[in-house]
Fold this protein.
Amino acid sequence: MHEDIVQLFLIASVIPDASEHHPDGKNKRDFLWDAVWRAHRDTLQGRFHLEGYLKQQENEHPNKVAVELHRELSSVQSGIAPSSSALIEGLKGSCEDDVEYGAFQKLVNMTLKYLLILQGFDQSTDGSLSSIDNALSSFPKIDRSLCDCPLDSFVLASLRKELADKTLVDGVAWTSIDEHTYIKIQNAIDAVIRSSYPQCYSRLDYDFIAWTRQKLGTHSSNILELLVEGERR
């Protein structure tokens, strides 16, 4: 089977084509917008508690915050994408209305997560550039060490099982989180990674760990052990 077909199937399974929602009305595939749009859809899972974020959408037009994030990342031009904190601060500065900090962090961090996944398709297995690789070649590169962990209910529940001081996450909802609490939880994730997952070096890695547990249940520990062994080799 042609490699492009396999890659497109895998990408579409995680990051569907969002060209019909493109802010420029483009009728061609823009993987960067696809990643932002998928993250926007994830953010809307908390829509009943994100009044400020919802106000950034007018009629059938894409959410202004998502459009601004796409514009910011599009301007990088094949360099390293800004850090989570820099992107969040940039979005905060671009919004005239009050938008929930939880929405900013979810949109930014999930976008970086999806771009990191797409980055895995950056080079074809035989070393040549495929059509998909060419489309991704102008993407900003994602440095995992600059990425925060997206905070959602699953990540917070996973953290609660691992933290000695559970009061840090008790009663915390990602939709209403403030910047101070967000930073404290990201620092706590650093500590959990150092103590329990030394093979990881990014806060974003913890998101994959938490969701692997959620999706695979009792089998997740075996999968994670295999991943650890793979990293060591």
